[in-house]
Specification:
With 83 residues, the chain is mostly helical. The protein has five helices and no strands. Helix 1 runs antiparallel to helix 5, helix 2 crosses helix 3 and helix 4 packs across helix 5. The chain starts with a helix and ends with a helix.
């Protein structure tokens, strides 16, 4: 592999980590607990706990739900839109 391919992979991993932290900030600001987030997004409690810890980020459909929910839309746009 060329150095360029390695560099691109590092950029992707760095952004994935950054996004997990952005999601953590969004989820902890808008939900009382991992159980609350799990209920709203209909995911396993362990998944929501990982979101709260910032160890992983959701798949696109969860972000889409957050953006389409009138109660969460403004907060989601503020975090993910860079505002």
């Amino acid at each position: 592999m060329s150095c360029r391919k390695f560099s691109a992979k590092a950029d992707v991993l760095t952004y994935r980590q950054h996004f997990a932290h952005m999601w953590r900030d969004f989820i902890t600001s808008n939900f009382d607990s991992p159980a609350h987030a799990a209920l709203v997004f209909r995911v396993d409690p362990s998944t929501a706990e990982n979101w709260f810890a910032g160890t992983n980020a959701p798949q696109g459909w969860v972000v889409g739900r957050a953006l389409s929910d009138p109660d969460l839309r403004d907060a989601a746009i503020a975090i993910f839109g860079g505002n």
